Amino acid sequence: MQDDNSSRNTKRADELALIKRVVANDQSAVTQLFYDYEPAVSRYIVHTVPDINEEDLQDVVQETFIGVLKSAKDYRGESSLSTWILRIAHYKAVDALRRRQVMNRREENIENMSNDEVSFVGDVSADVEEDVVSEQDIMLVRRALAALPEEQRQALTLRYVNGLRVDDVAMTMRITRRRAELLITRGRAELRRRLAEMDIRS
Q1: Which among 160, 154, 146, 149 is positioned nearest to 52, based on CA atoms?
Q2: Which of 184, 168, 178, 172 is CA-nearest to residue 8?
Q3: Nearest partner of 174 among 87, 82, 74, judged by Cα
Q4: Is 85 a residue whose pLDDT tops 60?
Q5: 187, 155 in Cβ contact below 8 A?
Q6: Residue 134: its pLDDT value, please?
Q7: Same domain assignment for residues 93 and 14
Q8: pLDDT the model gives residue 50
Q9: Whole-number mean pLDDT of the chain?
Q10: How many CB atoms lie within 10 A of CB 26?
């Protein structure tokens, strides 16, 4: 446990040092920040706005990092840097949903599934199917995920795609830990129900 705390403290110190360089307009630090955290931001936005196209995705990613740069001076290390950045991405994604009003459409392109997405599918379908998940099943899971209520989808994405702890999910969404637990529990149950309807059990 002590080693874990030491490792966490070291990581937090590194994150604070990186942000300090960003605030000082160190372009190499800005570049490092983008390359270190852009993949997680993109994954989160893709799952939060399921039918987003590439152009709109890049716009929201850009808006997120503009927000990060503008707010960098306010980062105090009270949460991990990834949690803090994903909180900004969360609001940018919600804004995108409100602007586009595309909740009834579903994302159909699964050609570029990441390893993280495949791992997520394996986790949520653990008691549905123990064998290797096929591409067709991945498509069904992503469609089922896209059909969930917005908060449930966001909570599941943060927990399983971005790998955040429940406390960090709550912090990112600015809700209580209990609310985050309920969203994740109910989201998983609803996801399993939708998968069953799609006959992924067969």
Answers
A1: 146
A2: 168
A3: 87
A4: yes
A5: yes
A6: 53
A7: yes
A8: 72
A9: 77
A10: 14
